[in-house]
């Protein structure tokens, strides 16, 4: 499973990138707002840092507007994936931009039917939002499993990009289901390394080692 980082904070991306943990980046209008940066400027910096796809989201609500914005965003770098919402206008824009040879990420997906439409429209990525479904007491992970089954039934090549990830548990569950990609905030990716027994075990090893009086270097 590929790891995308869900943020527009360049320092956080750089830190994880040095560990080889970044296969791509996703941004959205809220993340750009939180960064306080200009969309084109910060997106260019991210694209220069990361080799994989960097999703930049359009904000027009009509297809023509999305297509024009998508073409403009694609000028930032070769590795831009244009993000459009899962509306009929977004699907039309997806179809046009895909036929131009561009990567398209169809976002705000909350149902298997929506994911089926995105695949038919030729999306490179479909972004089902797990956390926002969980917030409504629905099973976000079930949606990932449903989409995996449907795409595998017909050999759709659209990549399942599990989004709106809120916990380290979401990451391993997405990997078990077979999501192609999971995009998570830097804090969630860091938490994946945590385990209380690791901390406890390391503490015991350090105490025992200190009592031997030895050094390795
Ligand atoms: C990424 O592509 C999505 O925009 C993001 O994961 C949404 O996450 P949120 O539901 O935590 O805002």
From TrEMBL:
GO terms for biological process: carbohydrate metabolic process; ketone catabolic process; pentose-phosphate shunt. It is found in: Cytoplasm. It catalyses: D-sedoheptulose 7-phosphate + D-glyceraldehyde 3-phosphate = D-erythrose 4-phosphate + beta-D-fructose 6-phosphate. One of its GO terms (molecular function) is aldehyde-lyase activity. The active site is at residue 83. Pathway: Carbohydrate degradation; pentose phosphate pathway; D-glyceraldehyde 3-phosphate and beta-D-fructose 6-phosphate from D-ribose 5-phosphate and D-xylulose 5-phosphate (non-oxidative stage): step 2/3. InterPro entries: Aldolase_TIM, TAL/FSA, Transaldolase_3B, Transaldolase_3B/F6P_aldolase, Transaldolase_AS, TSA/FSA_arc/bac. Its EC number is 2.2.1.2. Belongs to the transaldolase family. Type 3B subfamily. This is Probable transaldolase. The gene is tal.
